[in-house]
Automatic annotation (TrEMBL):
Residues 24-319 form the tRNA synthetases class I catalytic domain. The keyword Ribonucleoprotein does not apply. The keyword Zinc applies. Belongs to the class-I aminoacyl-tRNA synthetase family. This is cysteine--tRNA ligase. GO terms for cellular component: chloroplast; mitochondrion. Its main location: mitochondrion. It holds the Pfam family CysS_C. It comes from Rhododendron griersonianum. InterPro entries: Cys-tRNA-ligase, Cys-tRNA/MSH_ligase, CysS_C, Rossmann-like_a/b/a_fold, tRNA-synt_1_cat_dom, tRNAsynth_Ia_anticodon-bd. PANTHER family: CYSTEINE--TRNA LIGASE 1, CYTOPLASMIC-RELATED (PTHR10890:SF26), CYSTEINYL-TRNA SYNTHETASE (PTHR10890). Keywords: Aminoacyl-tRNA synthetase, ATP-binding, Chloroplast, Ligase, Metal-binding, Mitochondrion, Nucleotide-binding, Plastid, Protein biosynthesis, Transit peptide, Zinc. Its cofactor is Zn(2+). Residues 462-506 form the Cysteinyl-tRNA ligase anticodon binding domain.
Length: 538
């Protein structure tokens, strides 16, 4: 474990106990974590991005603390939704789901989510699933009926402990119609008898396929045993999915225990619920077509992971601006340090070793303390992004301004050393947050500018032409035209910066706009089943 881990206690909110608790792993130095993955039948939406960025931060932070993390995130590749979509496209269900599993992985790479230790698929774990169902039946908590197997909630007295629901209040399940053959309307399917045209596997109960919930119980037990540290997903999974998982896992193995249940909040759009029927449902690809993936990641981290996050053009623009500022500051720092050879950064004059300035030392210490304190407090990323990191970047900019001024050699070397150490600390923070790209600073800045051009509908050549026109107008004292050009570009998210005798451009936040990227011009006919807050993990 790192030194920090011993000094700072990590507190994590537990949905089971409804409070923050000090994190203590079952095995010292090691963590087992299972996160419910996507049902792969379409491109992933920003609800998925919200969930997997949140748990990527948890994964990264645990590694930062020195833990060896066994992170398992599954793919559901056998499901009613997949079968329906495959039938519509006249495609093999497993082939379709495999294709969308790969597309999901592309999105995760774009969002800089680290790959989990294992990414199991349901279709590869039928033996484990059937084995667990058989054990539940053997323990008297499930029954077979005409090739279907149901979990009997009445045989599990603790049912409802995670969600807080009373048995009589529970719905009759999810993703399936009510089955009058069930002993209790709340009983849920562990195994479904085969239907014509659907993929099926042999079992002691005949041909069929698993119910939705059993897959995660079987795969988490296979990779992490029945007792592990963290089980997570979106808040929409608390009931019925995680409640049913908990019941069937404990029914299969009474010693089953998950220490921390962790759930992330919903995504809304323009303060409205996100749904296909409202026309404000869109995929990660629709956002990253116009905005840098780092901007989407930054936006998702700017709200605490357990709170609802409201998506709007204005908010993603602000996030994009924030990422540009981070990378412009780092690029400016790199440029400012170029004239000073690496060796001179710890050089000396008259035998005196150059040390960082007291102000820089305080800034680094505060950034480090804020980072550790806030992340250890249930992953409080908003404060780090909106306060601690901003303070450090402002200090870097003020130090670079001082470096440009003529001053004694020793003070100059101290500023160089201060900037060098502060840049290192900022990069450590960005790395743990997943905001440090593998590309160079200049490459990221160019990527951000390219996205801004795409949003504005302009080209680099077109902007340069307008810059020339503005310069000519100013030369001819036609300041109104010069201001018009600047305002027209600003309205399209392009800011003109007069630097000395040169004018350059950079992305900026345009005036607030009413629509969202990917919003459909003609919303589909409302469907009550779709009119819900966007699920974040299914």
């Amino acid at each position: 474990m790192s030194t920090m881990a011993k000094e700072q206690e990590f507190q994590l909110y537990n949905s089971m106990t409804k409070q923050k608790e000090i994190f203590v792993s079952k095995e010292p130095g090691k963590v087992g974590m299972y996160i419910c993955g996507v049902t792969a039948y379409d491109l992933s939406h920003i609800g998925h991005a919200r969930a997997y960025v949140a748990f990527d931060i948890l994964f990264r932070y645990l590694k930062h603390l020195g833990y060896e993390v066994n992170y398992v995130r599954n793919f559901t590749d056998v499901d009613d939704k997949i079968i329906r979509r495959a039938n519509e496209l006249e495609e093999d269900p497993l082939a379709l789901s495999s294709r969308y599993c790969e597309e999901f992985l592309v999105d995760m790479v774009d969002l800089q989510c680290l790959p989990p230790t294992y990414q199991p698929r349901v279709s590869d774990h039928m033996e484990q699933i059937k084995g667990m169902i058989a054990q539940i039946i053997c323990n008297g908590c499930a029954y077979e009926m005409e090739g279907d197997v149901y979990f009997s909630v009445e045989k599990f007295p603790s049912y409802g402990q995670l969600s807080g629901r009373k048995l009589e209040d529970n719905r009759a399940g999810e993703r399936v119609a009510v089955d009058t053959r069930k002993r209790n309307p709340a009983d849920f399917a562990l195994w479904k008898a085969a239907k014509p045209g659907e993929p099926s596997w042999g079992s002691p109960w005949g041909l069929g396929r698993p119910g939705w919930h059993i897959e995660c119980s079987a795969m988490s037990a296979h990779y992490l045993t029945y007792s592990f540290d963290i089980h997570g997903g979106g808040m929409d999974l608390i009931f019925p999915h995680h409640e049913n998982e908990l019941a069937q896992s404990c029914a299969a193995c009474p010693a089953c225990h998950v220490t921390y249940w962790v759930h992330n909040g919903f995504v809304t759009a323009n303060d409205e619920k996100m749904s296909k029927s409202l026309g404000n449902f869109f995929t990660i690809r629709e956002v990253t077509k116009l905005y840098h993936p780092l901007a989407l990641r930054h936006f998702l981290m700017s709200t605490h992971y357990r709170s609802p996050v409201n998506y709007s053009i204005q908010q993603i623009e602000i996030a994009s601006e924030a990422v540009y500022y981070i990378y412009q500051t780092l690029q400016d720092c790199e440029d400012a340090l170029l004239p000073f050879p690496q060796g001179s950064q710890e050089g000396s004059e008259n035998g005196k070793i150059a040390r960082i300035t007291p102000a820089a030392k305080d800034c680094i210490s505060k950034l480090r303390d804020d980072f550790e304190t806030k992340l250890s407090d249930d992953l409080h990323t908003p404060y780090i992004l909106n306060a601690a990191l901003q303070e450090a970047l402002r200090f870097m900019n003020s130090s670079m301004n001082l470096l440009k001024k003529k001053q004694p050699k020793q003070q100059q070397l101290s500023l160089v050393q201060s900037l060098t150490e502060l840049e290192k600390e900022v990069k450590k923070v960005l790395s743990t947050l997943g905001l440090l790209a593998g590309s160079t600073y200049s490459e990221v800045l160019q990527q951000l500018k390219d996205k801004a051009l795409k949003r504005s509908g302009l080209t680099e050549e077109g902007i340069l032409h307008l810059i020339e026109e503005r310069a000519m107008a100013r030369k001819n004292k036609d300041f109104n035209r010069g201001d018009e050009i600047r305002s027209e570009l600003a309205a399209k998210g392009i800011a003109l910066m007069d630097v000395g005798k040169e004018t350059i451009w950079r992305p900026c936040v345009p005036p607030e706009q009413p629509s969202l990227p990917g919003q459909k011009e003609q919303p589909s006919v409302p469907d009550k089943q779709e009119e819900q807050v966007l699920p974040v993990s299914t």
